[in-house]
Amino acid sequence: MQEHQIEVLLDRLTRIAIALESAGGVAQGGSAATPNNPYQSPDVPDGYDTVLGYFSKNMPGAFELMDDPITGTLRDGHWLTHQASRRGIGIIKVPAPEPLVEIGINELNAYPVSLLQERIR
User: Fold this and answer.
1) pLDDT tens track for 3-16
2) What's the pTM value of the predicted model, to 2 decimals?
3) In this structure, are strands 107-112 and 92-95 parallel, antiparallel, or unpaired?
């Protein structure tokens, strides 16, 4: 990088930091607060999870490799649904997390964690 490019970058980063401080996103002298994970569904019973919830808890870096986490996990959901049906394993419907509700998806399948572990290692 050239010196001018570094100065421009530093200026932009400084403006972002100031904007975060004024919005309450960073405490004075602190660090940015960790947001709640938007892909975790509410009210999922123990022993079950959704594909997005499981990824977000156990492999959050995987989302960075996907163009879109929702479509990027569809294949996993199809496999899990097929295997659950084939094996006679129950699937539970749970409320979708807020970002999905905003795009019209109100429910998600929750699968036994053991089946999720089998699919997503």
Assistant:
1) 655 665 565 656 66
2) 0.64
3) antiparallel
